[in-house]
Amino acid sequence: MLQTQLSWPALATEAPFWDALARDVLPAYVNTCRWFAGKARTQTGFAVTSVHTVPTVRQPAYLLIVEATYAEGESEQYLLPVTLLAANSPNEVPDKGKISPLVCGNQEGTLIDAIYHPDFRTALFEAIRQNTELPQPDGSLTAVRGRGLAPDDTQPNSRVLPVDSSNSAMVFGTPRQETYFLKLYRKLFAETNPEVEMVAFLTEEGGFEHIPAFCGTLGWNPSAGRPITLGMMQRMVRNDKDSWMQTGDYLNDFLYAVPNRLFTIKEDVFDKVELLGKRTGQMHCALYQPRTTDPAFAPEPFTDEYRQFLIGRFADLLDRRYALLIDNYTRLDVPAQRLAWVFMEAKEMIEAFVEEFRTRPLDSLRIRIHGDYHLGQVLATPDDFVVIDFEGEPESTITDRKIKHSPLKDVAGMIRSYHYAVSAKLFNAAETQGISPEHLQRVSDRWFYLIRDTYLDAYLSEFGSPHPLFKNNNEINFLLLVYLLEKAVYELGYEISYRPDWVKIPLKGIIDVVREIEKIRISDQGHREEVPMLQTKLLNG
Ligand SMILES: Nc1ncnc2c1ncn2[C@@H]1O[C@H](COP(=O)(O)OP(=O)(O)O)[C@@H](O)[C@H]1O
Ligand SMILES: O=P(O)(O)O[C@H]1O[C@H](CO)[C@@H](O[C@H]2O[C@H](CO)[C@@H](O)[C@H](O)[C@H]2O)[C@H](O)[C@H]1O
């Protein structure tokens, strides 16, 4: 129980109170939060490093910046908005939003995550709508309205979106007409969030329309130091589901036919996959602006520095994944253990392949990309797609998230996602229980290759040939394999940590790439002449 003689509004500058919170309450609380990324690291403590006041209609809320420190590696900064919920308050707060019982002077209640208080949500919305600057002793909170928000559009109703993800999302509008989506970033970076940069560039320079319209930002401008993005607002997209769920629905039709030895994919499915390939291509065309004056977005060649960065990062990832796999080997089921063996045996070949990246001539260009592109990042509207979440790779530092890559890295992300979708569906369904794993694998591969090639064809046909982003088919093939491998190796860690039953999926993905590398090796035999631009069956010979 937290206790203080002072009243809640007097706490802004009461350092001992925030110290007690950081010491006695936050270590347990923060580790229950989905947004806290430091759970697997050895934590050495928490500190509240800033307390910013946000006036709301009844009492202030406080935006805390909490620093998490670790035995090894860099510390991290997290945003935690807090407020006092009075004991008799009618507001309902889910358990995950309750931080601690609290007595403040003669007031008793619960310290809660302020996103669960409607007054706090309204205060944020109003601050953005009115372009408000809230002065603080050591800087100011700055809210800026974007073009997608009408200045007179007040929104008294709001709710927290019940998705458990790395940030927190609030929605404004009535249940019939939810209009605005406000994301509060949890893990903070001492600069502009890459998502804000990407959305601004795609809208203003790229003219790409398949993202939600930009409605504003919320930031912290310290008196000393660089501005930090705290949140971003966009138009709410009316959607029934994201593309992961939509693909799952299509796969149900496919799955029900498998026990009858029928292979069915409806034309509608191909239409959707083609459309997503096209939209992905358009997104990358919008990001490719050779005449931009913004160096953060100017296309760049495959420099030695970039090659070194990618190889170093991959080698590190590979080592960490091998160690994780060995530590968790006995927890895996037998089929996963078999795949794990194949993967371990392929280590040298993988390393040699990635090493080739150091010297291989590459004339394709690199640009800023989505960076964490998969089916769950694309909302499905009745007849189109809207791309969201441009924050970049969750495990990367802010500097790494802003590095330019071949757009084929996003393409590889989406291809991996289709592989996930069919594998998760076929291997986990009651309908396929009696079917031999070998047959299931064949059927699953067939679906995957058809869908992958459909997506890839539609994607590449958005670019004229030749195009500065893709020099030729050799480079497309090679880069796609590099990024597919990197993504699948990354996923291996995610699955071991969060979904051990799914470890087979990235392992199979890695082994498929290793087979492709073998094929290239056999056909390459020392000479590398140009391969004509064939867009189908790009990877399977
Ligand atoms: N503009 C939007 N309109 C409607 N729903 C959205 C919008 N942006 C995101 N969402 C929903 O909120 C979820 C979380 O958003 P996302 O940007 O992926 O956040 P995070 O960075 O926390 O992963 C998404 O999976 C999607 O369901
Ligand atoms: O969406 P996040 O940025 O939180 O990404 C993490 O979680 C994803 C799962 O939600 C995970 O994606 C992997 O599983 C997806 C299916 O659930 C699949 O579509 C993706 O292709 C696969 O990578 C992602 O790797 C992780 O970073």
From TrEMBL:
GO molecular function: ATP binding; transferase activity
Database matches in SUPFAM superfamilies: Protein kinase-like (PK-like)
Superkingdom of origin: Bacteria
Maltokinase N-terminal cap domain mapped to chain residues: 29-92
Keywords: ATP-binding, Nucleotide-binding, Transferase
EC number in record: 2.7.1.175
Keyword NAD set for record: no
Reactions catalysed according to its record: D-maltose + ATP = alpha-maltose 1-phosphate + ADP + H(+)
InterPro entries: Kinase-like_dom_sf, Mak_N_cap, TreS_maltokin_C_dom
Family: Belongs to the aminoglycoside phosphotransferase family.
Protein name (Swiss-Prot/TrEMBL): Maltokinase
Biological source species: Rudanella paleaurantiibacter
